[in-house]
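Pair request: fold both.
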Amino acid sequence: MKPLLFILAILISTFVEAQTRILDTIYANDTKNVALFFPEPIRQGLTGSENFVFTYNREKEQYFGLLQAKQGKESNLLVINRNGSIFSYIVRYKAQLSKLNYFIPMTSSIGNEKPKVKDSIQSETFEKSIDNSTYYYQKFCSYLLDKRQYLGRYTRRNDGIIIRLENIVFDKEELYFVIQIRNNSTLDYDLNFLNLSIETRQKGKKKSLQRLYQEPIFKHHLPSKIVVNEMVRFIYVMPKFSLSNDRRVVLELNEKDGERNIEMKISNKYINNPN
């Protein structure tokens, strides 16, 4: 099928599917990037009007794309993931944006470009695939926790709380961040969150920083509390990614009902050259 006819066929099927559900609306403007994170890498993204631009990596499939808009009539955005899942949204221009990041769940998909018949065998196979992935993550994480290796420079502390990035390991299609937290203070530490984000240095006269949160696909032995004189080690499993020179990873440790917060900034060279 020719590309134009193929796209037209998808747009028609998407339109028919959309009649049975109300499409969500995403707002954008021409001064900020609105980031859309999808559950699978983006294979194709289309907008219905030239005053909306959706950019994504066409050479190397990635999980996110950026939306910008010029003032004008509303339009629509159609995104197809690598696994064939289709996502459709109404897009509108808005001068003031209250939301810059959208994390799209698989449940928001309106269908698949190659509809699959759901039967008990396929459902069972899918569930086994998930179980096998979880089992593998658990086993490999346990192996890494038995094998100690330190990157050296990545240790930060605040009032007796010490966080250390022990290792970054690449395996299959994932990056494993091995992290250690030690409580040398006189108070227990209640963990509110530990976020991993990608920080981008914006170029131009007005230098600024933009952070995009990255959701782990698996967390191994993440604690909710670190008691006094205790040391804990755990692992975040992330989808494989690489960074350009103007980007770096930020680990943000936040205490619940407290102020012993710590930020650790990790150079792109350690992300691009894992163990």
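--- second member of the pair ---
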Amino acid sequence: MAALNGPTPAVRAGTLLEAWVLPAFGIVTFLMLWAGCTAAGLAPARLLPGPGAAAAEFIDLTHTPYSGAVLQVHLLASLMKFSLGYGLAVLTGVPLGLMMGRYRIVEWAIAPLYESIRFIPPIAWVPFSILWLGTGFLAPTLVIFSGAFSPCVLNAYRGVHTADRAVLEAAQTLGAGRWATMTEVLLPAALPDIVAGLRVAAGFAWQSLIGAELIVGSTGLGYLIIQGESNLSSTVVVAGMITIGLTGAAIDFAMLRAERFVRRNWGQ
């Protein structure tokens, strides 16, 4: 009867503790330690501003332009670059992973080159990206793509290999063609692994973007904090880092919700 009436009070209390109380406690503890370190003078204020100073700078950046734009414009520029590079990685990486997992000849042909390329750090693509795309808006695209591409391929490949062989054989016995087998059998079966890979890829893509913006570009959050460092403004650097962290956490939370939804509806 308890199962029919929903979670018990103990289960609800445990969920509340895990979802809200403990994370809030961790954040408050971190802020208190941060404020205590700055108040005790363990580091000069010009190097480590307190939480209050960082929050004030964050608010100021939202309505006072810095390095040519307010904080929201820098954030939007980063998100646009992220969306472009990440989208290209998903659109190419997932189909390639499915093809490599489904057809052995494709795996044999692509795997050696892929295995060589995927161990190149994304930041190493920055010089090549500058040569091809210059130093403008598109410069970080190749770097973002390289960071997100490998997880998309690997998880799609893994999803094909974890699919139920009996279902695949049944579809082929019933006359399903190659396209139908791929889109109506393998893709739904591999979807939980694919979405898990998309979440990992999003994290790598966001980190790669910020790394690229630190080196090349004229807009974005990475550009903002490197300009803050050049001007010896630690508050700008910390406010930019907070924005980067919160945005990355929001992207990861959205991907986590999508992953849980897919696993709940399509997971085995």
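Observation on the second member. The first helix runs from residue 9 to 39.
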